[in-house]
Write a structure and sequence with these properties.
This protein has 15 helices and 22 strands. By secondary structure, it is an alpha/beta fold. The strands form three sheets. It has a 17-stranded parallel sheet, sandwiched between helices. A three-stranded antiparallel sheet has the order 1-3-2. The longest helix has 18 residues. The two termini are 42 Å apart. About 1% of the residues have low confidence.
């Protein structure tokens, strides 16, 4: 590394900046913060062994994070920690930092159970510095057969657990999280990726084509998973001569300059990912029907205009994603895909008749309701395995000439289907532009997650009180009233609540011990550019950990005395101010900071304006 730095600055009058390693104090802080809560004392019996482990990490942050990630999954006993320390090896203390790091990563790798090793190795198919979507990765794992259904958990829940374990072990790094703290995208540290690639090539797990430092001649000829990463300006011919492709299980194409290979030779393909490949044309999909083992097909953002009619003959297909294209309708044969469990389309796409035949469907989004015939909407209710549904286009379109009678028939059909789904397996329902639908008497007793976007309602409907399994709710109300809070507080399993006030209520709202959210962990209140007139009494949210006020206006600092001292479990306060009167913002920040500092937990404060 020093030689590279010397070479770079030799051509001009420059100097090398030596990046210092972490001091003993900072190393200890990083190590302990990863393993223990801020209010948790470090066990005295682990002091000595932890210092010995840190001495071997020699101030390398990634090494400290990797080792602490490994220890996070072990019992906190001195014997086990000593085993980890001894595993690092005495010879390591004399090794250069890169070898030292690889030794520690190897230790973390071999500590993984077999299933997690395979899931980790799969990350080698992605190019360096890729930002990877969590849900997309889990679907790939499933299609490859790495994840198996177990006990009462769904296969996607098992995939989530595998992902979280890699995250907890610090083998992957979160990039983007949603407002509820859930990881949406992640990346792999360059040094960890290098290690994963070396292991993948060693085990002939993946073949990388187009990576300059990894010519194909240095990799084995029998290919199991192909990752095409050619990134030249012109259309690039893939250097696959001499490779045995008849055993390829997955093809992953990255970049829009790669020449699309003929699919005829890939007879045993299970995963085909063309996402963002703008060079893909309709003729490239002509032979797709021959891929009779195909389980995963990603055509997102490729520019295709239609799905081949023969796609209905892919009897093993489980995931299809043709979003962000010019596809207007799905072929009639798609209803013959009896194993298809995940189907993602754009709002304007029209479905064929016969949706009820697709009994394997578990995830379906986004259904543009106004585009669909009533027969389709009635058929939705027969999908007994559907767990995740996103509906859109439920509002009245002023550009259409449909009669009130047609709209009524369509609305009755969707209400009927939702009530059927809500007593079967439906767990997550997202509704866009569905104010009128949310005012219908729905029965959704199995739903655990209900998200309403651009769907303001006059008040919280009484049927909401029947959602006895609801854990997450996002709702927009035209002027929140005390009665609305009473209905929401009575939900017995609610953990996350996002409440947006469409128009300001004249009521001063108070959440007290009588109006009690017993298990709520996260409360997000969107004031919609208005002052917040909301206070919390003792016992109102005994389990609340995160409090967020979004898009609110500050008139005077006194109005920000919410009563956060009444949240015994509070760890985070976030305030996003959109408007304020002159001179009020500093006083407002001081008032909230004072409340946070006097709280026994000293919650983290984020104040944005």
């Amino acid at each position: 590394m020093n030689d590279v730095a010397q070479s770079c600055c030799s051509s001009f009058n420059g100097a090398i900046y030596d990046l210092r390693r972490l001091s003993v104090v900072h190393s200890r802080q990083l190590f302990r913060r990863r393993l223990f809560d801020s209010n948790e004392d470090f066990p005295a019996h682990l002091e000595k062994v932890s210092d010995e482990i840190l001495r071997k990490c020699d101030g390398l942050p990634l090494a400290i994070i990797a080792i602490s990630g490994l220890l996070a999954n072990r019992e906190r006993t001195e014997d086990l920690w000593n085993q980890v320390k001894d595993s690092i090896g005495q010879a390591l203390e004399r090794n250069p930092s890169v070898e030292r790091m690889m030794n520690i990563l190897s230790l973390s790798y071999f500590d993984l159970p077999p299933r997690l090793k395979t899931c980790l190795l799969y990350l080698s198919v992605f190019p360096e510095d890729s930002i990877i979507e969590k849900k997309c990765l889990i679907r790939r794992w499933i299609a490859e057969g790495f994840i198996r259904k177990a006990d009462r958990h769904t296969i996607h829940e098992i995939g989530e657990r595998c992902f979280n374990e890699l995250l907890n072990r610090s083998l992957i790094q979160p990039v983007k999280t949603n407002k509820y703290g859930e990881v949406r995208t992640f990346r792999v540290h360059d040094m960890i990726l290098d290690f994963i690639i070396s292991k993948s090539i060693e085990e002939n797990f993946v073949t990388l084509v187009g990576v300059p430092i990894l010519p194909t001649r240095t990799q084995r000829k029998v290919v199991h998973r192909l990752s095409l990463q050619v990134v030249r300006k012109a259309n690039s011919t893939i250097p696959i001569a001499g490779l045995l492709l008849s055993h390829v299980r997955s093809i992953n194409v990255f970049g829009d300059s790669v020449e699309i290979p003929s699919l005829e030779v890939f007879r045993h393909l299970c995963v085909l990912d063309f996402k963002d490949c703008h060079q893909l044309e309709q003729h490239h999909l002509e032979n797709i029907v021959r891929l009779f083992q195909l389980r995963y097909l990603n055509l997102k953002h490729t520019g295709i205009r239609e799905i081949p009619e023969q796609i209905g003959r892919l009897g093993f297909l489980e995931m299809l994603d043709p979003r962000a294209n010019d596809v207007e309708e799905l072929p009639a044969s798609i209803v013959n895909l009896r194993k298809l469990s995940s189907l993602f389309v754009d709002v304007g796409v029209k479905f064929p008749v016969g949706i009820a035949k697709m009994q394997a469907l578990e995830s379906l989004k986004q259904v543009g309701v106004s585009n669909q015939p009533s027969d389709f909407l009635r058929g939705l209710g027969q999908l007994k395995n559907l767990r995740n549904l996103v509906l859109n286009g439920l509002g009245v379109d002023s550009n259409t000439l449909e009669t009130n009678m047609v709209r009524d028939v369509r609305n009755k059909a969707i209400v009927s289907s939702l009530c059927k789904l809500g007593t079967q397996n439906l767990r997550s329902l997202t509704i866009w532009d569905g104010s009128s639908l949310l005012q219908e008497p729905l029965s959704l007793i199995t739903v655990e997650k209900l998200i309403a976007r651009c769907s303001a309602v006059p008040q919280v409907s009484k049927w909401v009180s029947s959602l006895r399994n609801l854990q997450q709710l996002s709702l927009e109300v035209e002027g929140v009233k005390q009665d609305d809070l009473c209905i929401l507080a009575a939900l017995p399993t609610l953990l996350i609540l996002y409440l947006r006030e469409a128009t300001r209520s004249n009521e001063k709202l108070r959440i007290s011990g009588e109006v009690r959210f017993r298990f709520l962990r996260i409360f997000i209140y969107d004031a919609n550019h208005r002052p917040v007139d909301l206070t919390f009494g003792a016992g109102s949210m005994p389990k609340l950990e995160k409090l967020v006020f979004e898009a609110f206006c500050v008139a005077q600092a006194e109005s920000l005395c919410f009563g956060i001292e009444n949240f015994p479990c509070l760890t985070t306060v976030r305030c996003v101010v959109c408007r304020w009167e002159e001179g009020s913002i500093e006083a407002a920040y001081a008032a909230i900071e004072r409340s946070a500092n006097t709280h026994p937990n000293h919650p983290t404060l984020e104040f944005i304006y």
